[in-house]
Automatic annotation (TrEMBL), chain A:
<dbReference type="InterPro" id="IPR035906">
    <property type="entry name" value="MetI-like_sf"/>
</dbReference>
<keyword id="KW-1133">Transmembrane helix</keyword>
<keyword id="KW-0472">Membrane</keyword>
<feature type="transmembrane region" description="Helical">
    <location>
        <begin position="128"/>
        <end position="150"/>
    </location>
</feature>
<comment type="subunit">
    <text>The complex is composed of two ATP-binding proteins (CysA), two transmembrane proteins (CysT and CysW) and a solute-binding protein (CysP).</text>
</comment>
<keyword id="KW-0764">Sulfate transport</keyword>
<dbReference type="InterPro" id="IPR000515">
    <property type="entry name" value="MetI-like"/>
</dbReference>
<feature type="transmembrane region" description="Helical">
    <location>
        <begin position="238"/>
        <end position="261"/>
    </location>
</feature>
<feature type="transmembrane region" description="Helical">
    <location>
        <begin position="93"/>
        <end position="116"/>
    </location>
</feature>
<protein>
    <submittedName>
        <fullName>Sulfate ABC transporter permease subunit CysW</fullName>
    </submittedName>
</protein>
<comment type="function">
    <text>Part of the ABC transporter complex CysAWTP (TC 3.A.1.6.1) involved in sulfate/thiosulfate import. Probably responsible for the translocation of the substrate across the membrane.</text>
</comment>
<feature type="transmembrane region" description="Helical">
    <location>
        <begin position="9"/>
        <end position="32"/>
    </location>
</feature>
<dbReference type="GO" id="GO:0005886">
    <property type="term" value="C:plasma membrane"/>
</dbReference>
<dbReference type="InterPro" id="IPR005667">
    <property type="entry name" value="Sulph_transpt2"/>
</dbReference>
<dbReference type="GO" id="GO:0015419">
    <property type="term" value="F:ABC-type sulfate transporter activity"/>
</dbReference>
<dbReference type="InterPro" id="IPR011866">
    <property type="entry name" value="CysW_permease"/>
</dbReference>
<dbReference type="Pfam" id="PF00528">
    <property type="entry name" value="BPD_transp_1"/>
</dbReference>
């Protein structure tokens, strides 16, 4: 299909114009508004006690969620690829389930399960705060990030097959040795990719976390909740821009990591 | 990969471990008390008694599946089950009553309507962007290509702030979409941008240009070629991307929370209604609308999977 030059230019202008209006201008505008009063103002705004404790809380949640997702994600992927058991199809569907659930619905579902009146309400009544506490936020984040590691590791496991593992086993390696020395090195880039996706989503999750957090500044506010409350409750628009820019920086780092890892994966 | 074995034969094999033939090795490695030449000893195994290793091998797989199943149940299934149970606390009648409350109906309607418009917008603009990225050449194309993924990487609340800066109360160009349905539209179009682009792009790259040239040499105009040759090939990808965008849009919260305005019956989307019901302590209403939202998402994804399966079947048979 040979498109005439005017048509081609029109298509190009329309496509790029859409991207500029929808993506580029808003993002550049935020950056400009953040740094217009100077880098110092930005640094001051993201170094208030509330902002620092929000960053710490976000990182703490990441630090809890990532190891759990790595262990159970690799376990789930192994079970899905290598396991021969009834209900594997169901397991597959359950892993994809979090992608289809609205973040708000995740929060509501967790309240229905872990809240005082819920099925697991006895935990809350015994004095261990789940909803409106750190455990609730961690569980909410676990829910939304659950598919990432599984779905990145699974295809790699399929691809490498079991021949090397069998060879190792024939040579007398224990299952633990085979896992550490054969399986894990083979899946490392897929696993890393899954972890990067998990970290990005954990830092950026908003809807599910706001439902199960009490949202007190300095106590139970993550970075995303800080952006929200600064804009809406404190009418601190500049503070919200600054915190959003910080999150955006983290997102861009993620994007770069993903590009590098993609190349690593394809050259392997 | 020819090796498939049942659990029973594996158990037998572990009983006759030492002389397990190479072709009969289970895909989980056998236990061995001594570390064989060629593999250096690894710390953890040295500490394990052979018998312990052997018993673990017996139980490892069922135990592993059990642990994984338990984990998925506690994290994913039980919360959703509790949600469904709550939505039915007042019986089916209570569920229907909760869903047909004016506020709930309006919120669901706004959500589905705006999401459908966003899906169509994505289908058109996403295909166009994919086309330009594949068939056109211009300086900075790689940067534009990288930019497409930005909405997936950005936290949704940041998307909200970013759009408000241009289309909100302090807009430098005087466009105020704050608390309007077009505002919702812009927010949802932002977060769902990559779906269609990323699903159409690979198909366009693979597209056989010979067929297009053949159509052109037979006298077909560009429009005819596009409609009769290119579009049918792209259709499944466009539909798939638009469907995913729709499923994502109906559940969106973070990106619309600031720009949407949360005006009941006008710009309040289902997720905001649900949150409001939770805050005013009406869990049955919240749960019922949540279940409806879930069902719409499942139905969308189910149709997509079914359509994709049919498309594949046709490809194989042709």
């Amino acid at each position: 299909m040979k498109v005439s030059t005017p048509t081609r230019l029109t298509l190009r202008v329309v496509a790029l114009g859409y991207l500029v209006v929808l993506l580029l201008v808003p993002v550049v505008l935020i950056l400009w508004r953040t740094f217009e009063p100077g880098v110092g103002a930005f640094l001051d705004s993201v170094r208030t006690p509330a902002a620092i404790s929000a960053l710490n809380l976000s990182l703490l949640i990441v630090a809890i969620v990532v190891p759990l997702n790595v262990v159970f994600g690799v376990g789930t992927a192994l079970a899905l690829v290598r396991g021969r058991f009834r209900g594997r199809g169901v397991l597959q569907a359950v892993v994809d389930l979090p992608f289809a659930v609205s973040p708000i619905v995740v929060g509501v579902a967790l309240i229905m399960l872990w809240g005082v009146g819920g099925w697991f309400g006895f935990v809350e009544r015994s004095g261990f705060k789940v909803i409106f506490g750190l455990p609730g936020m961690v569980i909410a984040t676990l829910f939304v990030t659950l598919p990432f590691v599984v779905r990145e590791v699974e295809p790699v496991l399929h691809e490498i097959g079991t021949e090397q593992e069998q060879a190792a086993a024939t040579l007398g390696a224990s299952s633990w040795q085979t896992f550490w020395r054969i399986t894990l090195p083979a899946i490392r880039w897929g696993l890393t990719y899954g972890v990067v996706l998990t970290v990005a989503r954990a830092l950026g999750e908003f809807g599910a976390v706001i439902m199960v957090s009490s949202g007190f500044p300095g106590v139970s506010q993550t970075l995303t909740l800080l952006v929200h409350s600064r804009y809406l409750d404190d009418h601190n628009t500049y503070g919200a821009y600054a915190a959003a820019t910080l999150l955006m920086g983290l997102a861009v780092v993620t994007l770069l990591l993903m590009t590098v890892l993609d190349r690593k994966r394809s050259t392997r | 990969m020819a090796l498939t074995h049942t659990r029973g034969s594996e158990a037998e094999r572990s009983a006759s471990l030492p002389d397990a033939a190479p072709e009969a090795v289970p895909d989980r490695p056998v236990a061995h008390s001594a570390v064989v030449a060629g593999l250096e000893p690894v710390a953890p195994t040295d500490a394990e008694a052979p018998s312990a290793v052997r018993t673990r091998r017996w139980t490892a797989r069922p135990l592993g599946v059990g642990v994984v199943g338990l984990w998925l149940s506690v994290i994913v299934l039980l919360p959703l089950a509790a949600l469904a149970a709550t939505s039915l606390e007042g019986g089916v009648g209570g569920f229907v009553a909760a869903v047909s409350e004016p506020g709930a109906r309006a919120a669901l309607w706004v959500t589905v309507w705006v999401s459908a418009v966003v899906a169509v917008l994505n289908a058109v603009m996403g295909t166009l962007i994919a086309w330009v990225l594949v068939r056109d050449e211009f300086p900075g194309k790689r940067v534009v290509n990288a930019l497409i993924d930005l909405p997936f990487a950005l936290p949704t609340i940041v998307a909200s702030i970013v759009l408000l800066s241009l289309y909100g109360p302090s807009s430098p160009v005087g466009i105020h979409l704050n608390a309007t349905q077009p505002g919702l539209l812009v927010a949802l179009a932002f977060v769902t941008l990559p779906f269609v682009v990323r699903s159409v792009q690979p198909v366009l790259l693979e597209l056989d240009r010979d067929v297009e040239e053949a159509a052109a040499s037979l006298g077909a105009s560009n429009r005819t070629t596009f409609r009769r040759v290119v579009l049918p090939t792209l259709a499944p990808a466009i539909l798939g991307g638009a469907g995913l965008a729709f499923a994502r849009a109906i559940g969106e919260y973070g990106s619309v929370v600031l720009i949407g305005g949360n005006i009941p019956k006008k710009t309040q989307v289902a997720s905001q209604y649900i949150q409001q019901q939770v805050e005013t302590d009406q869990p049955v209403n919240a749960a019922a609308v949540s279940v409806v939202l879930l069902l719409i998402a499942f139905a969308t994804l189910f149709v997509l999977r079914w359509a994709a399966g049919r498309g594949r079947a046709r490809e194989v048979s042709s």
